[in-house]
């Protein structure tokens, strides 16, 4: 399956400058302002399988550190799908419309890692683990759920990893 995802790799990968995280308040009530996330197409089945492989690698890293696995969240994956596609317009934790990253679904999104131009799950997880702020999100023992999406634009891949409680 990875052969379908692999691209030329000429550009190399890139991470956003830092990961994003916001405080969790279990008593807060949020209303998503982007209904698109609720109806997002999970995308190409090969890319979805590749995203699941990335989560497996993340969970290996967590396991080596004595942390529990992150559970796959369809809601976070749908939000990640929206965010991954948005990265083609603005590679940032600020959305193309100027709002914060978590406004795709503020009920469930509490951490975000982004990457672009990585062709395999191994490459992107290695990059995230070698970045202190991205690793901090991955190794946050309070996060319990995760969704990852990959958006393919031409031969380029855009990755969004969303975390929740």
Can I get a quick summary?
Helix content is 35%, strand content 18%. The chain has 165 residues and is α+β, with helices and mostly antiparallel strands.
Description of the molecule:
It is a single chain. This protein has six helices and six strands, in the order H-E-E-H-H-E-H-E-H-H-E-E. Helix 3 packs parallel to helix 5. The radius of gyration is 14 Å and the shape is globular.
Low-confidence stretches: 1-11, 29-41
Beta strand count = 6
- Provide mean pLDDT, rounded: 83
**Helical stretch tally:** 6
Order of helices and strands: HEEHHEHEHHEE
Radius of gyration: 14 Å
Tell me the structural class.
alpha+beta
Shape annotation: globular
CA-CA gap between termini: 30 Å
- Indicate the percent of residues in helices: 25-40%
Strand content: 15-25%
Largest sheet properties: 6 strands, mixed
């Amino acid at each position: 399956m990875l052969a379908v995802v692999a691209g030329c790799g000429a550009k190399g990968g890139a991470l956003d400058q830092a990961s994003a995280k916001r405080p969790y308040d279990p008593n807060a009530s949020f209303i998503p302002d982007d209904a698109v996330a609720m109806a997002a197409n999970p995308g190409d089945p090969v890319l979805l399988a590749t995203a699941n492989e990335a989560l497996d690698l993340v969970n290996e890293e967590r396991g080596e550190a004595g942390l529990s696995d992150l559970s796959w969240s369809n809601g976070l994956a749908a939000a990640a799908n929206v965010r991954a596609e948005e990265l083609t317009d603005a590679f940032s934790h600020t959305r193309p419309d100027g709002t914060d990253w978590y406004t795709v679904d503020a009920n469930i999104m509490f951490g975000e890692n982004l990457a672009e131009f990585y062709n395999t799950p191994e490459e992107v997880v290695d990059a995230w683990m070698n970045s202190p702020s991205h690793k901090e999100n991955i190794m946050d023992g309070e996060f319990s759920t995760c969704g990852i999406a990959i958006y393919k634009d031409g031969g380029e891949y855009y990755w969004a990893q969303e975390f929740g409680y």
